[in-house]
Model the fold of this input.
Amino acid sequence: MLATGPATRAESRIVCLTVDEPNNYDAVNTCRGFADGEWKAPGHRVTVIQGNQERPTHFEGFLEAMKSADLLVVFVRRATPPQDQLDAIRAHLAAGKPLLGIRTANHAFSPLPGQAPTDPALASWPEFVPEVLGCQNTGYETKGLPYKVGRHPLAPGDSPLLRGVDVSRILGHVSLYRVLPLAADVSPLLLGQAEGIEPAQPIAWTRLHGPRKARVFYTSLGAPADIVQPSVRRLIGNAVNWTLGAD
Done:
């Protein structure tokens, strides 16, 4: 695996929220692969919290892990967990602590119509997408794959998140998420273009969330065929460093 370089905040505590289900792109193994490779190498301590089922999803041990979390990684889809687990994410962000979203995070707590929880102890959070990630969740494009990836025209020229990332060698192998329009305060980094399909869609960006300006990074890349690409791994490694203030 490709090393990401030393972080200035060694021994940070990273909590990964994920679930093993057929439509979640082997997310558990992806998080464990990063944890055992790139993230533990600089000395970070990583806890992978795996949900018990697709829906409703209980994340055993999540509340305890969040008490000392420096960074929360979200790679889960359409979950309806207990309310106190979503409240722990809100508290993490309200304290100015960072969040990194991968692929299905753009509908992490947004059940489909007819799937909303009926148990009052469970909750959904569709507002997580526009309010925290700063995007929309309006479907996906499956034609023109694999889609090409380029630097977004508004990406900062000296962005530490693109350091060591060979954008020309990245391909998106699964559906291209439709995320426009982005929030006005989003700083886009990468753009995905499916052949013959307009408009192109942002596929990686950053923003600062809330009064305490919690650092947020999101990428819609995340399928297994995406993750094995060295430049995608480097991008996510850079994002961990940036969210933890090691930029």
Helices lie at 27-39, 62-66, 83-94, 128-133, 224-227, 230-243.
